[in-house]
Write a structure and sequence with these properties.
78% helix; MetI-like fold; 13 helices; 1% strand; mainly alpha; two-stranded antiparallel ribbon; 2 strands
């Protein structure tokens, strides 16, 4: 009688060890794929053959007379876009969650649409609208602000909406109303202070998006900092590699601020409870 081979069943400890090994391997591979281009950009951007480590390429990039105006305009666009985004989204999201939860769910779904709309299609449609309603506005730098608000909406909407859903809006507005405050006063003095972390997260995401956006500015012939980077990279690739490395560091800094602020707010809330 042939003996049947019995496959040993791995113990829970063995399964856990195997899973841990697989997760570690995937994590290491992800780190290599993520950091390798970053390290390569730093080495290429901050070195020259025969010179070793140097800031020369980066300094040459900023010696371009168009560098600082492009950076200034981009920062102004980032501030303007963030302000418009907050002014539009915060009251709207609060109102929808307070008075029409079903409509709030529909708005949340619609806010994702800008992700699937190509930049070329969005610019074409908005350009036709500008030509009809305000032809002179199309050549203005500020014509980018509505476009940037649209493409920032999916991320910013969710950041703010998460903060709003964490609040008991009906209780806040009812208590404030019983003390004689109007809805606007409640929004400004009660709700917005409780949304500071969500608003900061949305603002930093919006700023990071504006600092990296190239397609729309290029299509509308506006000279923003990303357009400057692409243009100068043809003649000074090392300087732009160094600048890209610094941009990544700034983006990480913004994300770290979001994470640290969120953790600090949760800690304060737990202490308050």
């Amino acid at each position: 009688m042939a003996q049947q081979l019995i496959t040993p069943v791995p113990t829970p400890a063995a399964r856990k060890a195997n899973n841990s090994t697989a997760v570690t391997a995937v994590f290491i591979i992800a780190l290599v794929f993520f950091f390798a281009p970053w390290v390569a950009a730093a080495i290429f951007g901050f070195s020259r053959p025969g010179e070793g480590f140097t800031f020369g390429p980066l300094v040459e990039a900023f010696e371009n007379p168009r560098a600082w105006p492009a950076l200034r305009d981009t920062l102004l666009l980032a501030v303007a876009t963030t302000v418009v985004m907050l002014v539009l989204l915060v009251p709207t999201i609060v109102y929808l969650n307070l008075n029409s939860p079903k409509l709030a769910k529909a708005a949340e779904t619609l806010s994702v649409l800008p992700i699937v709309i190509p930049a070329v299609a969005l610019v074409s449609g908005v350009s036709e609208f500008y030509r009809t309603v305000a032809p002179g506005f199309l050549i203005s730098l500020w014509s980018l602000v509505p476009l940037y608000v649209i493409i920032a909406m999916p991320l910013c909407y969710r950041a703010i909406d998460a903060g709003v859903k964490a609040l008991d809006l009906r209780t806040l507005f009812s208590a404030s109303s019983s003390l004689g405050a109007s809805n606007l006063q409640t929004l400004i003095r009660v709700v917005i202070p409780n949304l500071r972390v969500s608003m900061l997260s949305a603002s930093l995401l919006c700023i990071a998006l504006v600092l990296a956006e190239f397609a729309m500015a290029s299509l509308l012939l506006h000279y923003t900092f990303p357009v400057f980077i692409v243009e100068v990279s043809r003649n000074n690739p090392r300087g732009i590699a160094a600048l890209s490395f610094i941009t990544i560091l700034l983006t990480w800094a913004l994300l770290s601020i979001i994470s640290a602020t969120s953790k600090a707010d949760k800690t304060n809330n737990q202490k308050g409870d």
